[in-house]
Design brief:
Blueprint (H helix, E strand, L loop, with lengths): L7 E5 L4 H13 L2 E8 L6 H12 L3 E6 L1 H6 L27 H15 L4 E3 L15 H15 L4 E3 L7 H10 L3 H7 L16 H16 L1
Parallel strand pairs: 1-2, 1-4, 2-3, 4-5
Helix pairs in contact: 1-6, 6-8
Protein backbone atom coordinates (compact mmCIF):
# COMPACT_ATOMS: atom_id res chain seq x y z
CA UNK A 1 0.00 0.00 0.00
CA UNK A 2 2.92 2.39 0.54
CA UNK A 3 3.32 2.54 -3.24
CA UNK A 4 -0.12 4.15 -3.39
CA UNK A 5 0.62 6.82 -0.78
CA UNK A 6 1.07 9.65 -3.25
CA UNK A 7 -1.96 8.63 -5.29
CA UNK A 8 -5.45 9.94 -4.58
CA UNK A 9 -8.47 8.09 -3.24
CA UNK A 10 -12.19 8.83 -3.52
CA UNK A 11 -14.34 7.46 -0.69
CA UNK A 12 -18.01 6.55 -1.11
CA UNK A 13 -19.23 8.37 1.97
CA UNK A 14 -22.64 8.22 3.66
CA UNK A 15 -21.66 9.62 7.05
CA UNK A 16 -22.32 6.25 8.70
CA UNK A 17 -20.06 4.09 10.85
CA UNK A 18 -18.65 1.98 8.03
CA UNK A 19 -17.96 4.69 5.47
CA UNK A 20 -16.49 7.01 8.12
CA UNK A 21 -14.16 4.27 9.33
CA UNK A 22 -13.15 3.74 5.70
CA UNK A 23 -12.61 7.47 5.32
CA UNK A 24 -10.10 7.51 8.17
CA UNK A 25 -8.51 4.32 6.81
CA UNK A 26 -8.07 6.06 3.46
CA UNK A 27 -6.56 9.15 5.10
CA UNK A 28 -3.91 6.92 6.61
CA UNK A 29 -3.20 5.17 3.31
CA UNK A 30 -3.29 8.10 0.87
CA UNK A 31 -1.97 11.65 0.90
CA UNK A 32 -4.97 12.93 -1.03
CA UNK A 33 -8.49 11.85 -0.03
CA UNK A 34 -11.83 13.12 -1.29
CA UNK A 35 -15.38 11.98 -0.54
CA UNK A 36 -18.56 11.58 -2.57
CA UNK A 37 -22.08 11.30 -1.12
CA UNK A 38 -25.27 10.37 -2.96
CA UNK A 39 -28.62 12.04 -2.43
CA UNK A 40 -31.30 9.61 -3.57
CA UNK A 41 -34.08 11.02 -1.38
CA UNK A 42 -33.30 8.35 1.18
CA UNK A 43 -35.40 7.78 4.26
CA UNK A 44 -32.75 8.94 6.72
CA UNK A 45 -31.79 12.11 4.85
CA UNK A 46 -29.97 13.49 7.86
CA UNK A 47 -27.10 11.24 6.80
CA UNK A 48 -26.33 13.75 4.04
CA UNK A 49 -26.06 16.57 6.56
CA UNK A 50 -23.97 14.30 8.76
CA UNK A 51 -21.62 13.49 5.89
CA UNK A 52 -21.35 17.17 5.02
CA UNK A 53 -20.49 18.11 8.61
CA UNK A 54 -17.81 15.43 8.92
CA UNK A 55 -16.25 16.43 5.59
CA UNK A 56 -16.24 20.07 6.69
CA UNK A 57 -14.65 19.22 10.03
CA UNK A 58 -11.93 17.21 8.30
CA UNK A 59 -11.46 19.86 5.55
CA UNK A 60 -12.20 17.28 2.86
CA UNK A 61 -13.13 17.95 -0.73
CA UNK A 62 -16.70 16.65 -0.69
CA UNK A 63 -19.08 16.13 -3.59
CA UNK A 64 -22.81 15.46 -3.20
CA UNK A 65 -24.44 13.95 -6.29
CA UNK A 66 -28.17 13.93 -7.03
CA UNK A 67 -29.28 10.36 -7.70
CA UNK A 68 -32.99 10.94 -7.24
CA UNK A 69 -33.79 8.61 -10.12
CA UNK A 70 -32.83 5.67 -7.89
CA UNK A 71 -35.60 6.65 -5.47
CA UNK A 72 -38.09 6.61 -8.33
CA UNK A 73 -36.93 3.23 -9.60
CA UNK A 74 -36.55 1.32 -6.33
CA UNK A 75 -39.38 1.83 -3.80
CA UNK A 76 -38.52 0.20 -0.47
CA UNK A 77 -38.02 0.98 3.21
CA UNK A 78 -34.99 3.21 2.56
CA UNK A 79 -36.71 5.27 -0.10
CA UNK A 80 -40.27 5.42 1.26
CA UNK A 81 -41.00 6.71 4.77
CA UNK A 82 -44.37 4.96 4.83
CA UNK A 83 -42.74 1.51 4.52
CA UNK A 84 -41.73 0.03 7.88
CA UNK A 85 -38.15 -1.27 8.08
CA UNK A 86 -38.22 -5.05 8.44
CA UNK A 87 -35.55 -7.73 8.56
CA UNK A 88 -35.74 -10.31 5.79
CA UNK A 89 -37.55 -13.56 6.31
CA UNK A 90 -35.52 -16.75 5.98
CA UNK A 91 -33.93 -16.75 2.54
CA UNK A 92 -35.33 -13.28 1.71
CA UNK A 93 -33.58 -9.94 1.39
CA UNK A 94 -34.48 -7.29 3.99
CA UNK A 95 -36.76 -4.56 2.67
CA UNK A 96 -33.92 -2.05 3.09
CA UNK A 97 -32.14 -3.49 0.04
CA UNK A 98 -32.12 -0.91 -2.77
CA UNK A 99 -31.74 -2.64 -6.13
CA UNK A 100 -28.71 -1.39 -8.02
CA UNK A 101 -27.56 1.05 -5.33
CA UNK A 102 -23.92 0.01 -5.01
CA UNK A 103 -23.70 -0.65 -8.73
CA UNK A 104 -24.77 2.93 -9.43
CA UNK A 105 -22.85 4.47 -6.54
CA UNK A 106 -19.57 2.90 -7.58
CA UNK A 107 -20.12 3.58 -11.28
CA UNK A 108 -20.77 7.28 -10.67
CA UNK A 109 -17.90 7.41 -8.20
CA UNK A 110 -15.63 6.04 -10.91
CA UNK A 111 -16.74 8.76 -13.33
CA UNK A 112 -15.95 11.43 -10.74
CA UNK A 113 -12.63 9.78 -9.89
CA UNK A 114 -11.45 9.67 -13.49
CA UNK A 115 -12.32 13.34 -14.00
CA UNK A 116 -10.13 14.14 -11.01
CA UNK A 117 -7.28 11.85 -11.99
CA UNK A 118 -7.97 9.50 -9.06
CA UNK A 119 -7.56 5.77 -9.49
CA UNK A 120 -8.43 4.48 -6.03
CA UNK A 121 -12.03 4.08 -4.86
CA UNK A 122 -12.82 3.15 -1.25
CA UNK A 123 -16.14 1.69 -0.14
CA UNK A 124 -17.38 0.23 3.14
CA UNK A 125 -19.22 -2.80 1.77
CA UNK A 126 -18.85 -5.93 3.87
CA UNK A 127 -19.61 -9.57 3.17
CA UNK A 128 -19.51 -10.53 6.86
CA UNK A 129 -22.29 -8.21 8.06
CA UNK A 130 -23.91 -7.58 4.70
CA UNK A 131 -27.48 -8.60 5.67
CA UNK A 132 -27.73 -10.66 2.50
CA UNK A 133 -27.24 -7.68 0.16
CA UNK A 134 -25.87 -9.16 -3.09
CA UNK A 135 -24.10 -5.92 -4.05
CA UNK A 136 -21.93 -6.06 -0.93
CA UNK A 137 -20.26 -9.32 -1.96
CA UNK A 138 -16.58 -9.51 -2.81
CA UNK A 139 -17.35 -11.25 -6.11
CA UNK A 140 -19.53 -8.31 -7.16
CA UNK A 141 -16.85 -5.74 -6.28
CA UNK A 142 -14.18 -7.65 -8.19
CA UNK A 143 -16.46 -8.03 -11.19
CA UNK A 144 -17.41 -4.36 -11.21
CA UNK A 145 -13.77 -3.33 -10.84
CA UNK A 146 -12.96 -5.16 -14.06
CA UNK A 147 -16.05 -3.75 -15.79
CA UNK A 148 -15.24 -0.15 -14.83
CA UNK A 149 -11.66 -0.53 -16.03
CA UNK A 150 -12.88 -1.83 -19.39
CA UNK A 151 -15.71 0.68 -19.70
CA UNK A 152 -13.49 3.72 -19.14
CA UNK A 153 -10.12 2.34 -20.26
CA UNK A 154 -8.75 3.47 -16.91
CA UNK A 155 -7.12 1.44 -14.17
CA UNK A 156 -9.27 1.80 -11.07
CA UNK A 157 -8.64 -0.08 -7.85
CA UNK A 158 -11.66 -0.57 -5.58
CA UNK A 159 -10.62 -0.98 -1.93
CA UNK A 160 -12.94 -2.66 0.59
CA UNK A 161 -11.24 -2.42 4.01
CA UNK A 162 -14.23 -3.93 5.83
CA UNK A 163 -15.01 -6.78 3.44
CA UNK A 164 -14.02 -9.66 5.71
CA UNK A 165 -14.56 -8.21 9.19
CA UNK A 166 -17.63 -7.98 11.42
CA UNK A 167 -19.00 -4.97 13.32
CA UNK A 168 -16.93 -5.69 16.41
CA UNK A 169 -13.80 -5.70 14.27
CA UNK A 170 -14.93 -2.53 12.52
CA UNK A 171 -15.06 -0.79 15.91
CA UNK A 172 -11.61 -2.22 16.62
CA UNK A 173 -10.33 -0.72 13.38
CA UNK A 174 -11.74 2.69 14.31
CA UNK A 175 -10.01 2.43 17.67
CA UNK A 176 -6.70 1.46 16.04
CA UNK A 177 -7.07 4.52 13.81
CA UNK A 178 -7.61 6.64 16.93
CA UNK A 179 -11.16 7.67 16.00
CA UNK A 180 -13.46 5.36 18.00
CA UNK A 181 -15.12 8.22 19.89
CA UNK A 182 -15.42 10.30 16.72
CA UNK A 183 -17.15 7.45 14.87
CA UNK A 184 -19.38 6.64 17.82
CA UNK A 185 -20.54 10.20 18.43
CA UNK A 186 -20.60 11.84 14.99
CA UNK A 187 -21.78 9.21 12.53
CA UNK A 188 -25.32 8.26 11.55
CA UNK A 189 -26.23 4.62 10.97
CA UNK A 190 -29.76 4.64 12.42
CA UNK A 191 -32.67 4.11 10.02
CA UNK A 192 -34.60 6.64 12.10
CA UNK A 193 -32.01 9.35 11.58
CA UNK A 194 -30.57 9.59 15.10
CA UNK A 195 -26.85 10.40 15.22
CA UNK A 196 -24.49 8.45 17.46
CA UNK A 197 -25.84 5.41 19.26
CA UNK A 198 -29.14 5.87 17.41
CA UNK A 199 -32.61 4.67 18.34
CA UNK A 200 -31.35 1.28 19.50
CA UNK A 201 -34.34 -0.46 17.93
CA UNK A 202 -33.88 -0.54 14.15
CA UNK A 203 -31.84 -3.36 12.54
CA UNK A 204 -28.92 -1.01 11.77
CA UNK A 205 -28.69 0.19 15.38
CA UNK A 206 -28.93 -3.31 16.79
CA UNK A 207 -26.06 -4.50 14.59
CA UNK A 208 -23.93 -1.44 15.29
CA UNK A 209 -24.52 -1.42 19.06
CA UNK A 210 -24.03 -5.17 19.46
CA UNK A 211 -20.65 -4.86 17.75
CA UNK A 212 -19.66 -1.94 19.96
CA UNK A 213 -20.70 -3.77 23.12
CA UNK A 214 -18.72 -6.83 22.09
CA UNK A 215 -15.65 -4.75 21.33
CA UNK A 216 -15.78 -2.77 24.59
CA UNK A 217 -16.19 -6.02 26.57
CA UNK A 218 -13.11 -7.49 24.92
CA UNK A 219 -11.00 -4.34 25.04
Amino acid sequence: MTAYKDQGALVVFSGGQDSTTCLFWARKQFNRVEAVTFDYNQRHRREIDCAREIARELSLEHTILDLGLLNQLAPNALTRSEITVKAGESGQLPNTFVDGRNLLFLSFTAVVAKQRNIRHIVTGVCETDFSGYPDCRDVFIKSLNVTLNLAMDYQFVIHTPLMWINKMETWAMADELGVLDFVRQKTLTCYNGIIGDGCGECPACKLRNAGLKEYLCRK
